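Why this split exists: single-chain examples teach little about how molecules sit against one another. For that reason, every record in the complexes split bundles all components of an assembly together and asks for one structure covering all of them. Below is a record exactly as it appears in the raw files.
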Amino acid sequence: MDFKIGRSIKSSNGIINTGKQNNKSSQTNPFGVSFKGNIIGADVFINENKIESKITKPFNKMKLFFSAIINGHNIFNEKLKQSMNKVSDFANKIKNETKALFINTKDKIKETISNIKENLSLTPKEGTLKYYSKMSVKELENEFNKEIKNINNNEGSKNG
Amino acid sequence: MVSEKVANIIEALGKHNDNSSIEVLVKVGTNCENDEIRELTARALVKKNDEKSLRYMLLSRGKGVNDLSSSVAMSTINELIALKDKTNLYKIIDETITENIDNDIRDTIRSIKALINYSN
């Protein structure tokens, strides 16, 4: 319990006051005790609100502030974790898509290069459609007969 | 399995501007023992969408839709159904249904007509 003494002791912040005279109120104080020969009176009690406002209020505020920090720290951690997960998911997605795109592009480039090579070459590769497209019907007929003979020979050798 | 070479030769003949390629395909391709070659030839002739080549595929006994191999006949029918311009095809079908004496061929053509109408 906070209290003040009547007269002689006066602190810089004025919380504690002392007084030697015994007034009526000190005699009626049920908690009346002596302090260095002075009687502590009921009227020496200081309004608690005043003390709280000067000492405990800032402290309470600090407590609240730190408690908020500690509680907030957990929430912040969770939020941070969630956002980090989101970021890593997004990064993974981008990575995979970029990889797939790169592979596709690589294949397309290869295909295009081989097509260009085939188109630019004066003599198309034997057996390709382009190679046969340049032939006359008579030449194609000969090729056709030759291939059918080969197939028949292969089938004949397989059978026996 | 037919080699890529043969498939390319048949395709080249099918795309050839010279119409004598039809005769080569009919003579060499449709008379071949190999089912796969006959199938590829029939498809190439239908894709040509020429009246002469379509007549071979629809009206000749043992060729195209009348082939003894069901896979050859079915793939020819599929190719006929897939044709974008069916003017020549309808002309031959209508003529055959009204004029052709051969009952078997007439029945086959009638069935093909029904299939084409159903698929449209």
